[in-house]
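Chain A, query sequence.
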Amino acid sequence: MALATIKLHSPSVKKLPSRACSPAQLVLAQLYAARRAGPKDLVQAYMWFLIAGEQITQAKNHLNQSMTMEQLLEAEQRAAEWIRKMRKIPPSSIENPPNASTA
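Chain A, predicted structure.
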């Protein structure tokens, strides 16, 4: 099912973000951004991206307090490498990989 076809006002969708769950908040943001049925959808999308970002920042800050400097540096280096690799891959090749079936 496409993100844009999900009913954003259904009871099951409304329950997603109420548990302070970043993945659910990100999904809701993506749903509103993909739907774009009106200007308020973009506002809702941005609001949920901000909320999810705040949750992620809090979780990251809590985690890094228990890590050594070496662990932090290793994690940052791995993340930077992953981001560099992803930026080199055109979005169309991710959505439609060359070996994907077209059935």
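Helices lie at 11-15, 22-35, 39-64, 69-88, 91-95. The chain has a mean pLDDT of 79.
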